[in-house]
Design a protein that fits this description.
Largest sheet: 8 strands, antiparallel
Number of strands: 16
CATH class: Alpha Beta
Shape: globular
Mean pLDDT: 94
Radius of gyration: 21 Å
Order of helices and strands: EEEEEEEEHHEEEEEHHHHHEEEHHHH
Low-confidence stretches: none
Keywords: Hydrolase
Protein name: Carcinine hydrolase/isopenicillin-N N-acyltransferase family protein
Structural class: alpha+beta
CATH superfamily: Penicillin V Acylase, Chain A
CATH architecture: 4-Layer Sandwich
InterPro entries: Peptidase_C45_hydrolase, Peptidase_C69
CATH topology: Penicillin V Acylase, Chain A
Strand order of the largest sheet: 3-6-7-8-9-10-11-13
Number of domains: 1
Organism: Phenylobacterium conjunctum
GO molecular function, one term: hydrolase activity
Helix content: 25-40%
Length: 436
């Protein structure tokens, strides 16, 4: 389960395109931040993806990606031309293909590597989707099959692309847009695949004007009730609308940290899945394992990433393509590793889950002040000083997390849902997380 957001320049405080995404995956499914430089065609002329090998192109673009540790593809990322993409699992009444093909994450990374604009990225995904299809297990410890939707943006344009099998529909974003785990394009699509239209016509799905309501035709209502996709999409859109036309990176970070309006909300007491996702027992296996906010503008595009789970308990840190990515320790896997940034934070996160309200109160003010300071530092840094400023921000964030870990107080209240505690204990044991 995930949520992705975009706001075009007229809706933002500094005339930039703003992009944001939470990647929600299984709780031990660590995500790696990586920068890959431009790459020329290899001697073999083929590249191995998650499940398939396909022909390479002559040269790829440099990319920044946030990648589930076991996949080739990425949940979110950007390239050197300022194209950003986030993907969403979509559940159609027609079902998802189980036979291995391209995954949505493969399509996202391929588009970043091969497209210099958002419009080109749309075409890359459509072309590869129609040629190879999408399918295969996208779960970590639990099997998970789904179709994919995408928000794709650059400095001037943004698009929503929703797919089902090899079918697709495209809607250009006019101002702001949210996307969650539910089909959202209705009759307002700008383009639609001929194959989908032909099927819709044969099935009698078209309205009296010959238009297809994509969401109504495809949405699996049962799966949506479980994922709360439409509810999260509506909540995210409302938050975007409240902030426009003065949206800025801090506002997008706040949206990614949203837990809704329930006064008694806690990770163990969630009536509907929230934008900042926390895992629990039963079917609620996902948590926000990585988060990204991008401010895309001419001159200097800055990407803000947590590199850790739970944005409400994490610090967004700056990354600029073309400059070194600060060290995060060894690439994380699904095994606990004290040398890994992702897992060091995860131990803090899981300790704070015993009393989320107390943990959040402990860190929130310093977290927000750090991020505000980081944004000022990056704005003021000259080109020659940027790499130094970025590295300093990452060091300061790590130092803050170390303080929080040592200062964390014991919980003042206990969870009255034994299944919730058991689910975390089991997954902690699987990963080898020490008891706190």
């Amino acid at each position: 389960m995930c949520d992705t957001f975009v706001a075009l320049s007229a809706q933002t405080a500094r005339g930039a395109t703003l992009f944001a995404k939470n990647s929600d995956r299984e709780r031990n499914e660590a995500q790696a931040l990586e920068i890959h430089p431009r790459r020329r065609r290899s001697d073999s002329g083929r590249m191995r993806l998650t499940y398939l090998s396909i022909p390479e192109v002559e040269e790829t673009h440099a990319v920044l990606i946030s990648r589930p540790f076991w996949m080739w593809g990425a949940e979110m990322g950007a390239n050197e031309h300022g194209v950003v993409i986030g993907n969403e699992a979509l559940h159609a009444r027609t079902g998802a293909q189980r036979r291995r093909a391209l995954t949505g994450m493969d399509l996202l990374r391929l588009a970043l590597e091969r497209a210099a604009t958002a419009a080109e990225a749309v075409e890359v995904i459509i072309r590869l989707l129609e040629q190879y299809g999408q399918g295969g297990d996208c779960g970590h410890l639990n099997r998970f099959y789904y179709n994919n939707g995408f928000i794709i943006a650059d400095t001037g344009q943004a698009y929503v692309l929703e797919t089902a099998g090899r079918w697709w529909a495209v809607q250009q974003v006019r101002a702001t847009r949210s996307l969650s785990n539910a089909y959202s394009i209705t009759t307002d699509h700008d383009r639609i695949s001929p194959a989908l239209m032909a099927h819709a016509r044969a099935e009698g799905w078209l309205d009296g004007d010959g238009r297809l309501d994509v969401a109504r035709a495809l949405l699996d209502e049962t799966r949506d009730a479980a994922s709360f996709g439409r509810g999260r999409c509506a909540r995210g859109q409302a938050l975007l609308d409240q902030g426009a036309p003065r949206l800025d990176p801090a506002a997008m970070m706040a949206i990614l940290r949203d837990h809704g309006d329930a006064a008694d909300w806690s990770p163990a007491n969630t009536t509907g899945r929230t934008i900042c996702m926390h895992a629990a027992e039963g079917a609620r296996r996902s948590q926000s394992v990585g988060s990204m906010v991008s401010e895309i503008r001419q001159g200097r595009t800055v990407h803000w990433l947590t590199g850790t789970s739970a944005p409400c308990l994490s610090v967004f840190k700056p990354v600029i393509l073309g400059l070194p990515l600060p060290a995060q320790g060894p690439p994380p896997t699904d095994a606990y590793d004290t040398e890994s940034l992702w897992w060091r934070h995860e131990r803090l996160h899981r300790a704070m889950l015993a009393d989320h309200a107390a943990g959040h109160a402990l860190i929130a003010a310093e977290r927000d002040a750090l991020e505000a300071d980081f944004r000022v530092r990056i704005d003021r840094a000259g080109d020659d000083d940027l790499a130094t400023a970025i590295a300093a921000c990452w060091r300061d964030a790590e130092a803050a997390e170390a303080r929080w870990a040592s200062a964390h107080v014991p919980p003042t209240r206990s969870c009255n849902r034994p299944g919730y505690g058991r689910s975390w204990a089991r997954l902690n044991q699987v990963a080898g997380v020490p008891r706190t």
